[in-house]
Amino acid sequence: MRKPKLRELKEAIRAVVLGPYTTRFPAEPSPAAEAYRGEGQFDEKECVGCGACVEVCPADAIEMVDHVRRYPPVRSIVRHHDECIFCGQCEVQCTTEKGVHLTSEYELSCLDRKQCVVSIDKELMLCEMCGEVITTKDHLRWIARKVGAKRYANPTLLLTSEAEFSVVDGGAKTSENPTGRSDIMRVLCPSCRREVVIEEIWG
Q1: Average pLDDT for residues 96-113, to the nearest whole number?
Q2: CA distances (Å), 92 to each of 18, 98, 111, in order?
Q3: Considering the entire predicted model, what is its pTM?
Q4: What is the DSSP letter of 191?
Q5: Are residues 41 and 119 located together in one domain of the fold?
Q6: C-alpha distances out from residue 23 to 30, 31, 137, 186, Å
Q7: Pair 203, 135 in one domain
Q8: Exposed (0-12), middle (13-18) or buried (19+): which is 158, by Cβ within 10 Å?
Q9: Residue 50 to residues 75, 96, 179, 194, 203: CA-CA distances in angstroms?
Q10: Is pLDDT at 167 greater than 60 in this prediction?
């Protein structure tokens, strides 16, 4: 019978005296490595609900659902940790650069996949003429702050910055209530804004 190698014998004796090299996880949590990409979390204050993270996610682990029939209407951005590949694109490509970030939390195992879901809700802004979704209120406010004084060139941003929001009043315009000059100062989607501007210019 061959004798064990001296190195292996040394390691065996050392393990008996000092204990094994392995960690005691999961009995004792082990700190994650520096810059570890773990569980993603939304920041309620910084996230504007623009949906940029949904667009750049290569694994389709983030979805965006607009609930326009609710009152008030809301947009839900849902993150599925069980489908996430933790690439960090959502954090890198975030519009505000602070809306979502990957934490160092790596213990994400669970018995129910519903526990792997994290979501955030943002109130939607709807067009006052046709009722179509424009974006979230927080997103409009963020754009208004970003462009500064230039927001006065866009009535939607102006009304947003002044917090003069109105409720959609019955959907699209009808022949009994045609588009008029007063509609310029309303929160409108791009299509309706074009219609109002053309009506104002050409009559």
Answers
A1: 90
A2: 43, 9, 30
A3: 0.77
A4: H
A5: yes
A6: 7, 11, 48, 62
A7: yes
A8: middle
A9: 9, 9, 29, 22, 35
A10: no
